[in-house]
## 1
Amino acid sequence: MVEEIMKKYGYFNFFRDSPINDNIGRITFVSKENYLVMTPKGELIGKLKGRYSYEIEDAKEFPYVGDWVSIQYTGNEKEVLIDHLFRRKNRISRKMRGKQFSEQIIACNVDYIIFCMSTDENFSLRLLEKYLYAFSCPNSKSLLVLTKKDLAENVEKNIKKIKELYPNLEVIATSIYEDSSIKLLLPYLLEGTTSVIIGSSGVGKSTLINHIAGKEIFKTREISKKTQRGKHTTTFRKLIYLGEGLGCIIDTPGLSSVSLWSSYNSNSAFSDIEELSLHCKFRNCTHTVEKGCAVLKGVKDGIISEDRYKNFIKLKREENFMKSKIDFNINKKRNKEIEEREKMKKSKKRK
């Protein structure tokens, strides 16, 4: 029983041949104060142990949905204490919304990143580029799911456009009214694997998960007739088990915007442009004004579309800006620590 629970939540996929440890659990939900942790004894409330919490120096060192942690059982059979975070194989992040320059972790330790987009008039290649640029990460595979194909007439046309840019990207068009199309997703949701589903509000993420699981796990809402935009059905991140023979999936709130944090694998979004850039005259070419720029020549010759080029430059600038702000904050924190150490030294000398 114990082994079955942890196997379903990806224990052996993460720890490989290590035997089940009763003091290891997986984070399934995060609130401001507590966690939900799937343990060999079931899903329990988790709290950070005082010493562990005190030693955390950076926000990314806190546990997030999908993380594996070591736990201690307490006198309360419904609670555990979290005292260690196991090293992640990957994490998906974006910049926190607003003016604050900090990382917002969306999901950790995933095998598949499922980008969900509807096939109606809101479909956008530029948005797909941004998804791939912002969220592709190491040790994971990307999958694009086009929903609501029963409501669109241009599904095959959109798939053709996508395949021209991303021949290696798996694309699946689905409709909740066609069970055969939903079943095409099952090979990517095998037992022991963990997927995260990402997309805008109203594209059908929660509806898709409900149909895969064969029951209503997440509530769904209709598209706004006034704005033709989705309403936020999912307002939190939750890792759930999909059912017998299937893996786990992390549902996420609909994205109203995509703010870059770090592009781990940005080349996968613009591999054609990156390949052309190898032929630029200058190694540090910005691909904007330089003579001998192979990318600008590609745009002029029609090899790269103007819109795709503009999106590439926009994302590169956004990424460079974020890197400069991150470096600034790191240096600011380091200088503050040095100042504090110097103050302590002076204080000791006076004594």
Note: Residues 223-230 have pLDDT under 50 and may be disordered.
## 2
Amino acid sequence: MECQSALQGQRKKGEEVKTAWRPPGALTDSSVSWWCPQKCQSWQGELGRMTALLGAKSPLRRVAIFGGTHGNELSGVLLVKHWEEDGAEVQRTGLQVKPFIANPRAVQKGSRYIDCDLNRVFDPAHLGEEMPENSPYEVVRAQEIHRLFGPKGGKDAYDVILDLHNTTANMGCTLILETSKNDLLIQMFHYIKSCLAPRPCFVYLIDRPSLKYATTRSVAKHPVGVEVGPQPQGVLRADILDQMRRIVGHALDFIQYFNEGREFPACSLEVYRVMEKVDYPRKENGEIAAVIHPSLQDQDWKPLNPGDPVFLTLDGKTIPFDGDSTVYPVFVNEAAYYEKGEAFATTLKVTLTARSLNSSSP
């Protein structure tokens, strides 16, 4: 059942420069160690400042860690269940951290969802309407999550939600950012990337209105998507689990340091901004007519140039990329996106900047 169908007739009208950052005297090859507690202990910078709009000048007090938004993405499920039983690893002084299984029925069934995608229904129409008894399970669950961790856009919403996902695509460690204007998250992602180095960690920016979707984590003031792969659906890999675990730990460390009043100098962050979602070639009846070309398979984040192979038909014909400039593909051949008509998404590299940041009342 599609979530949209449950709302038909119920909606009201009207709803609807690239160099590594290195401030003078603040960061050198020998001093990068301050990023992680294991590597260094101090960091000096200019006076912290954060836009009042994003509400991050005051300490962050409530953080949720979501696993099982999709029930067959098992790294987050296993970690959250572990932390529900023993939360010592994710607790931080002065911070309330709540591990939470977002879609328990889908987790029990081992499927992405029961009726519809939970990670697409956190919009005003689904959250604001009284649902009939036969509403899709995920719509009902979205309203429960909204009550527990929201309200979305409200002052009482959770400060941060870390939403843990796996992908079958070769995305490595990926952080998902929903706006280019959140200084706190730009600083946090910069910190996490530095902690994980030399392992790469990519930032996927999904701020284009036409391509943005209503995520589970968007209930929080500062939503953080965590995507780690490749990992098949319904499978656990120790290396992928470890990478996700490290990302969560570094994110919580950053929040604790921010709450303690640590100053974070102005920084820049390279991100990949989504531009277009590309479907598979299809027959007249809608069936897929070509597969991802071997030259593109597993090449997430790598340059894709005009004329490069992207699809291969069953009779051996290569279909080239028909764009007019170099892009960077992501979620290449993602299993969960077959139903969404997405073979891959194209992105462009963009550099974001964040002003210096600290908490005004540690």
Note: The longest strand covers residues 267-278.
## 3
Amino acid sequence: MSETESITVFLPGLHGGGAEKMMLDLSSEFVDRGLDVDLVVASREGKFLDKVPEKVDLIDLDAPEPPGYGLLGALPGLISHLRDRCPDAVLSALNRANIVAVLATRLSQVDARVVVSERNHLSTYLDHAMRREQLALPRLIRAVYPYADDVVAISEGVADDLAETAGLDRESITVVYNPAMTPEIRGMYDEPVEYPWFGDDLPVIIGVGSLTEQKDFPTLLRAVAHLREERPCRLVICGEGEKRPELEALVEELGLDDIVDLPGFVDNPYAMMNQADVFALSSKWEGFGNVIVEALGCGCPVVSTDCPSGPAEILSGGKHGELVPVGDPRALASGIAAQLDDPPNARELQERADDFAVDTIAREYLTVLLDR
């Protein structure tokens, strides 16, 4: 691969979400493979700013935010950058950024392939969006995405739903899973954990994610309330978000104060997963579910809702973990109990996580980006 090959990655910013982490991990891997990578952001902000790989050029467009569709303010700057840079390929993620990336690439008239990564289960996302976005976003996607050289979805379920909801040709969408397993994460599993609950024989269940409606942690709390009727257990939920007051109130209402802890954002949840007895995901929807792969990577047994659309694909339809209905606390409790009673072979779980290693996924992205 020639050193002259270059990729421009475009994002709104570097907020601490899954899309941003994925793009940083891929950018790092691309650089390690000898490519030149520049990461262009509409605005230089977000907690991942210090995570940008050293050899990746970070370009801040410092774009204005016009009313109605703020990210369009980045369009002139991105067009100018592409004309100056003339990359071989452009890669973006997130709906609005994808639309801007396609428009900028075509309007700049540079000879670059443009690939957009769709992360959301679109119909479920729109169910929880404002009415204006429910009307506008599918139409924008339907109008703009066909001008991309490739549309990548992070799961088969996301691809199927995108085609149906936005009216795209399903054959035009390529599925490439998330690069959820990285050397950095593997190195964090064995770091020491200063947390008292991992020091005795009581089983510990762990959940990790933002405290939002999507993650549906009330169902997990109710599941643990049912499980406690059968056996002693503890629950740790690592994450922060706007639902914290509701969750704290529910913990008190269910009488779980002594066995549930909400420590907030944790720098290294992977070491805690490595110490936990079961990882539980209670989400109403996911685009993929990186955190499931991260749990499998240390051999932690997994129980997940069979939500749209990534968990069932990661867990191979239940081969590598328990799948339960969405919003059913008793079913979730039963699934957790089953994993505690008969935990799977940890090595087999780790081998499944290897299927989502960043070097493997980066190779698939380069095939799409550089038409190789």
Note: The first helix runs from residue 18 to 32.
## 4
Amino acid sequence: MSVSFSPLALTRALPFLPLAQGDIDYQTERRVEPHLIAETLAEPATKVILTRDGKIAVPRGQGELADYENVKMRLATIPGAYVARELDAHPQAVAMFLGSYGGRRDEHVVAVDVTRVARIADGSERGADDAFDEPEDGTNGGVIAAGGAFGFGAGRGAHASLLEQAVDRFDWVDLRGFAPHASAREAGQATSAITLSIWHNRQRHCPTCGAPVAAANGGWAQRCTNDADGRRLLFPRVEPAVITIIVDSEGRALLQHNAAWKNPTLYSVSAGFVEAGENLEHAARREAMEEVGIRLGEVKYLGSQPWPFPASLMMAFKAHALTTDVHVDGMETVEATWVTPDEYTAALVTGRMSAPGKATIARYMIEEWLGREL
């Protein structure tokens, strides 16, 4: 009598996901406080991070590190008290209260999006990267010292304000480039900040009445400004998506190449948005049938992480294929192939295939199946 085991029997939840590392206390109960941002910025342990056009600010010179292996990156940070004065002068900037880490320092983090702040170059001779070298120059590990390490703090004067110069004072990297090189804590901060900032910049008017909106609830909501329509409260839109690694009874994985991918060697796993009124498991089975013509049996949850490009929440599954004949749709998916772990490793070595990026959930799903890090 032969005994067979499900190919999902030893599947484990994904232990690490680069965009799901946040450990900050959101302090959601404080979001309704009328002066939350101003009071938080006045606290000495508050730090501010900046976003712009869906990217995060890092110290000048660090933007080049995103494409390198085994390097560390950190956020550029500004003291809260200085930014409070900046916000008064730039109402088009959007402040977002990310939360607190508690403890003895009770550090708070506020993100400020400067996408709509006019860019003004600074004519001073001081280089931006000079502000991030040694503590003697008025900084501490990339933190701009209170009072203005750049010579700010005395109003507009001879210099434009920090928010106006931010484009040139810092390097800007997207989340996919920053998170794999950052600490877990700063990766979490960047994920929340970029997710919220993208929403604020994409939705500038009430989707019901068309009136302009204003940031509310510490930046985690928007308030419609139309008194006649009740000044409704609006919340960020999240678009659920499923992503599934399909395995057969022999332990092979089905990897596919999509038409939209510019890299011809990139192979990943099945993914797609959840339809209205659809549950996650049904979405995983439907996407597999639509993209590669495979009928799925058991579906097992692996984990989730946000993917703010612009507003997705990726929910990962591993699924057992009941059929193995591949029929790609030819529009979204142009090629799909079954591979064993050894065949996949050989394909990576020869360059015939390349793995998904380090910030993607797909990479860690493949690693779970492969049994080792890529």
Note: The first strand starts at residue 46 and ends at 52.
